[in-house]
Amino acid sequence: MDHSRHTPLTRQELNEAVLNGAPVYGVDDEKIGTISHVHGVGAVTDVVVDVGGFLGIGSKPVLVSVDQLNLMRDENGKVHGVTSWTKDQLKELPEHRH
């Protein structure tokens, strides 16, 4: 996927309504998780990324700062995130509990 043509999200778009359900891609554009929850708004936003599992079953929720993700819209307006982290690196993070 060529992310160079995708539009970065603004700080105002970093909220639950926009980010919830967005896929997160790691190296080689491998899908490594899905944003399932948002804490905060704008510059002080963290997201919960569900990593692993199948269709949300058996996944591990981990807390990641939006500063660790490049959040953008593709040509069709679909929101997604890109990170240099691997799925295994995210799985090593502590499990997030609400």
UniProtKB/TrEMBL annotation:
Name assigned to this protein: PRC-barrel domain-containing protein
Domain annotation PRC-barrel: ranges: 19-69
Pfam families linked: PRC
Domain of life where this protein originates: Bacteria
